[in-house]
Write a structure and sequence with these properties.
- The chain is built from seven helices and twelve strands.
- The protein is α+β, with helices and mostly antiparallel strands.
- The strands form four sheets. It has a five-stranded mixed beta sheet. A three-stranded antiparallel beta sheet has the order 2-6-11.
- The longest helix is centred in the middle third of the chain and has 10 residues, at 129-138.
- It is globular, with a radius of gyration of 18 Å.
Length: 204
């Protein structure tokens, strides 16, 4: 087996002193896809998120644009079928947000990030054990990370994971979050029941 057949990224073994950073300010609009029954500022610690921290800390995932937010909210189903389930979309919405203060983030997309042993696998590898170890290491110095998401192919950073106290933060929210159904259709995605997509092929 060659080195190209294996995952190169392992836990952070080098010092992250002077790892490249960037600032996130309140001037940067952020988009969060979330359940209609929950607030948007949720800092997850369940381990189901790529860069979840463990209790009593957590990670809140946000994107820089709504296309990325939709793709990350729907995930693998959209990537495989090209369709957003109407039943799923009905339970989700997109909130436009801004952080209440500046955050210094680890810039995982910086050219010099590779000098610390980081690879693009951080955003794509499964399971999430190794990315979560990197997140824990970053949290000692940074208030979050800037990264590229798994379900998008844009060349630039398009998301952030903020570190904070696990659970829901009481930061300012979007008074009028947009239903995911409306946002997805406006952005050109197909929102339908799975049976609707194949109905025409079943008709005599």
């Amino acid at each position: 087996m060659s080195h190209r057949d294996t995952v190169a990224l392992g836990p952070p073994l080098r010092s992250l002193f002077r790892f490249p950073g960037c600032e996130l300010t309140a001037a940067q609009p952020l988009i969060r896809g979330h359940s209609t029954g929950n607030g948007p500022w949720w800092f997850a610690s369940s381990g189901r998120g790529r860069c979840d921290l463990t209790q009593p800390h957590g990670t809140c995932y946000l994107t820089f644009d709504e296309l990325t937010a939709i793709r990350e909210t729907v995930g693998e189903t959209l990537a495989r079928t090209g369709v957003v389930s109407d039943a799923f979309a009905a339970t989700r919405c997109l909130s436009t947000l801004a952080v209440p203060h500046e955050h210094q983030l680890a810039d995982t997309c910086a050219g010099t990030a590779a000098d610390f042993g980081l690879t693009r696998e951080l955003e794509s590898m499964t399971p999430y054990g190794v990315p979560q170890e990197w997140a824990a290491a970053f949290s000692a110095t940074f208030a979050g990370i800037r990264y590229q998401t798994r379900f998008s192919t844009r060349p630039n950073p398009n998301a952030v994971g903020l570190f904070g106290e696990a659970g829901e933060a009481t930061w300012s929210t979007d008074a009028n979050p947009e239903p995911l159904v409306a946002a997805a259709r406006r952005c050109g995605f197909t929102v339908a029941a799975r049976r609707d997509r194949y109905a025409s092929s079943r008709r005599p």
